[in-house]
Amino acid sequence: MIKKLMLVMFLLISTSIGPACFEIFGAVTPSALKCEYFVDPKGIDSLAPRLSWILISGERGQKQTAYQILVASSKKKLVAGIADLWDSKKVNSDQSIHIVYQGRPLKSRMTCFWKVRIWDKDVVPSDWSQDADWSMGLLKQSDWKARWICYDTRPWVKKRGLQLPPCPYFRKTFTVYEKLRKATLYVSALGLFETSINGKRVGRDHFMPGWTNYSKRVYYKAYPVTDLVRKGENVIGAVLSNGWYAGYVGFAPRHTANPRRRAFYGEIPAFIAQLDLEYADGKRVTILTDRSWKASTGPIREADIQMGETYDARLEIPGWDRPFFDDRTWVSAKFHDAIVPRLESYPADPVQRIQTIQPVNITQPQPGVYVFNMGQNFAGYAKIKIKGNRGARIVLRYAEMLHKDGSVMTENLRDARATDTYYLKGDDSSETWQPRFTYHGFQYVEVLGLTRKPDLDTVTGIVLHSSLAKTGSFECSSDLVNNLYRNIVWTQRSNFFDIPTDCPQRDERLGWSGDAQIYARSAAYNTEIAAFMSKWLVALEDDQRPSGAFPDFAPMPFLQFEPSPGWMDAGVICTYILYKVYGDTRIIKKHYRAMKRFMDYLERTSTNYLRFPKENCWGDWQALGAQTPQDLIATAYYAYDAKLMAEMASVIGNSRDSRQYSILADNIKNAFSQAYVTSQDRLKGDTQTAYALAIYMKLLPDKMIGVAGERLVELIKNRNWHISTGFLGIKHILPALSETGHSAVACRLLENRTYPSWGYSIANGATTVWERWDSYTKNKGFQNPEMNSFSHYAFGSVCEWMFSSMAGIDTDGAGFKRIIIRPRIQGCEITSTKATYNSIHGLISSEWQIKNGKFILDTTIPPNTTATVYLPAEDLGRITEGGQPVGSTDSVKLLSFDGHDAVFSIDSGNYQFESKIPQEIPFG
Ligand code: BGC
Asked: Is 528 a catalytic residue?
């Protein structure tokens, strides 16, 4: 009877509040279905896409024992359970990520509908998941029938200033005769594009198709546009700009050694599009770019990523992108002579307009000069809402900081003009405008040309960046640290812009590989970086040097320097991070040959397992005081690469390579000790970074680890408890301290407010992470503007430690299938931390607090995973879980207890542990 009652209740609840009911009754559901890291992606290029899902259940120990996937060629078939493409049948496996599609061969343009069910721990089948889908892109280059078209607007260039050409506009009229079943637009550009159908913008993406080595590949996007196309006459419109292809990139403008100032890939942007129209009767018609497209210039007179945009609203062409427009003054588009070897589907999260920000105040440092303070440093641009006379000119200049007199500081932008200009059309009502093909890194907008006093609505900040899914949250008892976390996240947002850039403001914005490898693990806690970083790794491999070294930055339109240790290693380290965080082995296979070439290069250029950089070495970039020896850095990275390669080779089943790389790693480690450990048990150079690298990368003999930790603390103490590392040391120093039992020192560094520290920047108003410890100091003011960004994520790589050691969330092995919950905060003044991380296996949380001598930990482990929990505890007998003495439930098993740390293994579910904190805080 009770069971029946419960069933009725279950049904009632399930119809009214959905998934919450599962928590009550412990049923398990597969959800968040993804194909190649995306929900319902369009334009999949892989013939064997990988499928993943997570399980939702409130029940402890819940897991998957088997799964079944159905894939159908139509939604109708899937609903009817007809898996005409693939029925995996019941597969006994706990694997819920990266299941490789093994059904009927996939073809261009197909949409595949799929669902999954699983069998739980008691081998009870779940319901089918909700339906999901993915669409295939254009798989063969021969699927592209369209030609690249262009319109050379250089004759309109004003022979002064930067001499930027106006943007070309294209239009194509086509007729739809009958009802359509489906319309898909495949589109790409050399440069940047924006397309519309009948005046409506296609998609939400910006800065498409991203930045690649255009001589190797160009990405395209597939957009479902069925809703935009109508019966009768239709128009596709497109606007192009130079973008990374033909515009200013990197620091090229300032390098006299480099005769080219822009247009590294080509002079004239090009456009390609195919609109596939599928009629209800199955007939297919494709509209292609060719010479029948019409072209013109329009109101965008200049557009450059670094330099800014100029828009003359008087030159707007009403109706140009709609049907029944008289385009007789437009000319025929020309074919572009581009040789594009490969068009591939854009494989990552596109840049989008993510958020708007209102200014917090307006100042007027000089009459007629208005400065809007956005209250936050970010990447994007300003939208303006103004009223004025026809032809009046409004100029927007962007800056991260203000001078003492309140004027904008633009010197640190170097040659990036970062200026947008708008000429009013003189509407009676107000005019609203925002640029499209440029972006700036800024907190302040200076507006010139306003004839009346503005208000806070005159300017709106538009935040743009790659649209990565948020995966992490973090807060703790220290406001300063919370502030730092916020600054880190904002800095990541500003610099995850199609590629991982060093900075968003000056004439640089390059995918510097050193910065990326240092920060990638931190980034992965904050957002899902799998697709974004995988895309960048392609760029890194595309520009691998002939020597085998990975480049200093990628894409690499011009070669300025030979790659440096700590930078070139990104090819191995970032691949490894993606494997580790997402359990992705395909990424290893994809780059394995390139990584081996790199290892061969390292071997070739080493001497008795030591590496002495000859060509270029950035060292521990931005370190203060004593510099870490370059050969020590180079050798440390060599050893680390070998170690990671040994692991990755083994994961993909190459045991011979794995053995060889293990032996190599051991040999380098020995050589490292012999060369760099002095007779006084010191490391050559004796810098914080030397010890941090050696401890983190496990390069020291066991007996030396503790001593190295002590020396590291001493060096910090010698600087009055301050940090002095540069980019290469910063990721490693706090983990190295925790590893050697000095978490209290790590916390002290984190909570410093005096120079040099993260806190010092915050005390001075930072809303993002600065490039240098001394970007601004009270004594000296701003650093040399030549190299002074206020939005550089490298020093934000402390975020990795905040999640892995403060909150204590880490992966044990790859992909968070086994999880570690290990807050390492012995001796810290921080009394609570709360973090969540949405892993590829589901949501993990760790929330702890110290109260009345007790350590209280609340943690959630997703279904189908297990965890090892480390608990500081004085007395095993006084540990409770869920209010009961620990050990009284099956799902918590004691693994070890050494008098100060109790280690348990737990199944999935939610747990509340309480222990008495040891009085004596032991190191280790
Ligand atoms: C960048 C850095 C980069 C470095 C190489 C700088 O200009 O901004 O972040 O890693 O060059 O040393």
From this structure: no
Between the CA atoms of 154, 158, 162 and 166, what dihedral angle is there, to the nearest 10 degrees? -50
Give Cα 504 distance to the centre of its chain: 14
SS3 870: strand
Please count the other Cβ atoms lying within 10 Å of the Cβ belonging to residue 752: 19
Going by alpha carbons, the residue nearest to atom 1 of ligand 1 is 502
517 CA → ligand 1 middle, Å? 13
Question: DSSP characters for 895-923?
Answer: EEE-SSEEEEEE-SEEEEEEEEPPSS---
Q: Which two tokens stand for residue 510?
A: 């390059």
Mutate to test the pocket of ligand 1, among 255, 491, 495, 502 (most ligand atoms within 8 A of CB): 502
Q: Alpha-carbon distance 214 to 206, whole Å?
A: 18
DSSP 783: P
Longest dimension (CA), the chain: 89
Cα separation values, 897 from 31, 744, 770, Å: 38, 22, 42
Token reading at 588: 């290893």
Distance CA 471, CA 840 (A): 10
| 276 ligand 1 Cβ < 6 A | no
Q: Which residues contact 334 (CB under 8 A, 6 or more apart)?
A: 149, 150, 151, 152, 291, 295
Distance of CA 634 to the CA centre of its chain: 27
Is 508 among the residues known to form the active site?
A: yes
- For residue 668, what pLDDT band results from cuts at 50, 70 and 90? very high
Per-residue pLDDT tens for 565-608? 999 999 999 999 999 999 999 999 999 999 999 999 999 999 99
φ/ψ of residue 301, rounded to 5: -85, -25
